[in-house]
Design brief:
Length: 252
């Protein structure tokens, strides 16, 4: 099981047995209104199967790979746009249903999280089921339209970011000039700093390696220092410049 799946399922399991109030209010819809979309207070009492997933993803710190939606059709389309749509279930996948059995994305009207898949049967955690509950369900796949894979979203996003980071550094230090370059102006460099950058970029890879320790004196901004260090490693053939996405803090 991937770390995304594990974290998402742990967060979802914490509130098993929760039920909406008599007026339809849920804490998950309230959270969604306060933190994701304040356009309509109706979210507080709206059908909450997808808003619960947004909450669980945020609790686990994986919302950028799971998505934050209230409308299941848009959520499914988002996974398709991310190249993370599948016909095969796996733990941590989001399962999208059309109770009319149309197999059409436009007909999707419910979503859950897969805990386990065995043959044609899936075990899930679903919100707003049996009218009011957050609970586990055992289902066949007859009404499943497809599966959104957060694991695949992560692979696609992180892979693209790593390639972009390496391409930018290589271009800045003598590589492929067709790749967009982060210019010195982006870092608000002083004339002295620009002179330092120029001397490093003009040096050969071996010379650049010997010069790199000298820039640890604090004269350069941290972001530029990172770029210079990455470029030196790229020139040496070392892949150590992976981009890291920041997780949004869980609201209090």
């Amino acid at each position: 099981m991937t770390s995304i799946a594990d974290g998402l399922l742990r967060a979802a399991q914490k509130d098993l047995g929760y039920r909406e109030q008599s007026n339809g209010y849920t804490k998950f819809g309230d959270w969604y209104y306060a933190n994701v979309d304040q356009s309509d207070s109706y979210f507080k009492t709206a059908p909450w199967c997808d808003m619960f997933i947004a909450w669980a993803a945020n609790e686990a710190g994986v919302e950028q790979y799971v998505g934050e939606f209230a409308y299941t059709v848009d959520h499914a389309k988002w996974f398709m746009e991310q190249g993370a749509w599948s016909d095969t279930p796996e733990p941590g996948a989001l399962v999208f249903y059309d109770w009319a059995g149309s197999d059409s994305v436009e007909g999707i009207d419910h979503v859950g999280i897969v805990e386990k898949a065995e043959g044609q049967n899936i075990s899930t955690i679903e919100a707003n089921v049996d009218a009011i509950w957050l609970k586990r369900k055992e289902r066949d796949q007859s009404n499943v339209v497809g599966y959104g894979l957060p694991r695949k979203v992560q692979e696609n996003k992180d892979g693209s970011l790593a390639q972009e980071s390496e391409g930018t550094a290589a271009a800045a230090f003598g590589g492929d000039t067709e790749t967009p370059v982060k210019s010195a102006a982006m870092f608000d460099l002083s004339p002295a700093d620009q002179k330092t950058v120029a001397s490093v970029t003009a040096a050969s890879p071996d010379a650049r390696s010997s010069m790199t320790p000298a820039i640890h004196d604090g004269a350069l901004p941290a972001a530029l220092l990172t770029l210079l260090l990455c470029a030196t490693l790229v020139a040496k053939g070392v892949n150590a410049c992976k981009s890291v996405e920041r997780h949004r803090a869980v609201p209090a």
